[in-house]
Amino acid sequence: MRYEPVTLRNAEDLKANLKTQLEKHNHIKLSDTEFKSILNHLDKGNVFDRAKRLRDKMELSRDDGTTFYLEFLNTEHWCQNQYQVTNQITQQGNYKNRYDITLLINGLPLVQIELKRRGLELKEAFNQINRYQRHSYGADNGLFQYIQIFVISNGVNTRYYANNRKQEFKQTFYWADQENNLITQLEDFTDSFLEKCHISKMICKYIVLHESDKVLMVLRPYQYYAVEAIIERVKDTDKNGYIWHTTGSGKTLTSFKAAQILTQIPKVHKVLFVVDRADLDYQTSKEFNYFSPNCVDTTDNTKQLVEQMAGDNPLIVTTIQKLNRAIKSQRHETAMEKLKDKRIVFIFDECHRSQFGETHKNIVKFFTKAQMFGFTGTPIFADNAASNEHGKRTTKDLFQECLHKYVITNAIADENVLKFSVEYWGKIKRKDGTLITEPKLDREFFENPDRISLIVDWIIANHNRKTHGRKFSAMLCASSVDTLITYYDTFKNKQKQGLHDLRVITIFTPGYNEEDQDANGLIGEPDFNISTDPSSRSHSRDKLNQFIADYNQMYQTQHSAKDSQAFYAYYKDIAKRMKDRDRENFQDQERADILLVVNMFLTGFDVKKLNTLYVDKNLKYHGLIQAYSRTNRILGELKSQGNIVCFRNLKDNTDQAVALFSDPNANEQIFIEPYEYYIEEFNKGLQELRAIATIPNDVNKLISEDDQVKFVKAFRNLIRLQNVSKSFTEFSFSDLNLDEQTFEDYKSKYLDIYDRTRSKPDDEKESLVEEVDFELELIQRDIKDDATQKDYQNQKASILELIGKEVQLRSKRDLLEKFIEERLPTLEPEEKVETVFQDFWTQERVEAIQQLCLEENLKVEAVNQMIADYKFSGKEPLRETVLSACNEKPKLLERKKIFARVVSKLLDIINKFDDDLGELGEEE
């Protein structure tokens, strides 16, 4: 690495070294007063604020009255910085922590490396960094909150990730070479990724400051190589090119970063980022506008685009529809003429869309120096090209050379997307148990209401299993608008009969006949044009209005389809509703369970909390891969695969699509194993568990931490396997070599160990068990539709038993029991349970805070402020903050004990009243 080694034992050494390095980097001598001013400047805001401050210069008022612009990081010439390496820095925050290896750039700790010995899980290093973030990174001017990249390694596996408190382990990445070969060994990773110029380049150019979510994001290796290839192409040639990165791999982030960097190349006049209107959602617009103010134009006004192109903004984000109008219309010819010979770079997102043939022709005809780059997860080859007025045009025809390739098998191997679980239900059972066999091409058969009714019955029976008790949403794609209408009406009628309470929503373009698109198996382009001509009224238009009225009633909105603008607003509201489910503060009453579509949302629509696609549509080639890929975004341990349920026999189509877009022999890499495999693996794992603890009570005899860790890992393996197995329709506990009650008893012992390790004071000796990730999200209850119990006492007993098993609710048991015992029986008919519960919860929280203030003689307003600060930043209060909250200043020898006691009680209140409350109102 050739870093200068330096010995820094504590925060004072770190600050003294920072002063020296900033002086060296800026060719300046700083007085103590000036350096104190710098420390005050640095010690502001959260990680995101500090990342911005790191990249800016400080206007330093010097002792002699002059002003100096102090640089913390040379982002333009990233190799021209000062590099040091140190290890074992000790930081005293709420608890004392000692960090493994720290890379310093210009004296600031920008890269932290946490090492574990070989054989230990990499996740243990990840969890340890999370503890550092809670316990000590914020201490002593918060210099460790300037870390940009974390590296975790156990020698044989090495990953990196950006400094983002909300991140989970699955958002850590391996580095790789240009051919997507993973670099996992620590020594090789150090030579390539941690080389001075490369790590600086990653920090300066390839970390994205995501303004919408206020988090840092670092590019993955394939994203890095794609952007580098585009930059090299623009600097050295005038040729076009395309990037083939599989669906779900983050193409929009890659193309955003490419556009951002290209605007800084002097010979580039403008960069146009071109998307389909359907993909220009609120979040994309917001991100681009943060980077280049007012660069996104979401109106239908072509004149506004023309004015932007004639103006000074180096980046313009527009839609493919408006771009076509601007360069074809004679009205704008004079204004556009000035740009004809300028060097303009066009970046097309999702360039497999059919309109790109026409757009490509128009651009080449008008701009003499245009350079075009396309991003696609599913290129158009000769095999899957559809004919139009321009003939059969492949992606290579339009964009020439593929500059970088990262296919679905690469993404699955790197754990950047999930595998698929595909079930084919081509044969539907009648009520008498006989099978309905699927004919090949019989539209009358597929649109038969009786067949659709049977499919809806299947979905109602299995939806909770597929979506883990509605913790995820699903989509259903139908072959035509008429079929979709039949589906919606069938769901609605069965709901009126009390057969389900699923929230079903839909959107489609009325009067738009999809028969031809279904015949070729490709996905048609979304159409937002709604005629306002009264003579154009149709059955499908009237149905759409009915369905939007249902939507308005369900979500208290006021949408309509009176014209194209109103219809597009409805489309965007559905997109936002589905995507917002990914957000931390999403309210469950806003969720949609199943979205019915024909073509809309089947390409370019990324939602992590969507895990199931029901297919009653002939899909082929890129249409099939695009649609399937709506389900396979990574999200925690609970989402183990994307579920595809085909109500048509698409097995051959699926195999052909996989062969075209990855490898003819890639099925095993792309699809999860059959049901029998997971049952067999579960039963093998059960033998290993019973070798450690033959029956649940034997867990009590596991005294040593090593034995407890063995049990935790063995049972965790079982809950992982059960999580996948339960998603199969045929799952039954009788296939496992233990009964459900014994499994629940083992689970209780598992949770007992978790509770014991988490209740220890953090300043005690580190626990081996605490390092293990318990993956508690896998331990959830299922919604059981037939579980309503009339007897109140039995219901109460079952609820309290459930609380003991529900991870998030164990710490709240006494309060929930109090609510059930004291308040629930007195509920008046007109009172809403949710409202009464919220009032009860708020009052109990107020009383708990008052009790804490009484016991510790604290100021109520100061305690409330500490809780609010913790919820905002995730940082425990500093000692000075706690002591200043005391009504009487504590004696010197008592301060340490008082501080630890108050922090512990504060965290108990937060854990009990504020954490994990989302699950409480989930069932309706």
Q: What count of helical segments does DSSP give?
A: 34
**Overall pLDDT score:** 83
Strand content: 5-15%
**Care to count the β-strands?**
28
> Runs with pLDDT <50, length 5+?
513-519, 781-791, 917-924
- Structure class: alpha/beta
Global morphology: globular
Helix fraction bin: 40-55%
Main sheet makeup: 6 strands, mixed
The rounded Rg comes to: 30 Å
Task: Output the strand order for the largest sheet.
Answer: 1-4-7-8-9-10
List descriptors.
single chain, 924 residues, alpha/beta, six-stranded mixed sheet, six-stranded parallel sheet, 44% helix, disordered C terminus
Q: Your description of this structure?
A:
This protein has 924 residues and is an alpha/beta fold. The protein has a 6-stranded mixed sheet, with helices on both faces. A 6-stranded parallel sheet has the order 17-16-18-19-15-20, with helices on both faces. It is globular and about 85 Å long. Mean pLDDT is 83; it is low at 513-519, 781-791 and 917-924.
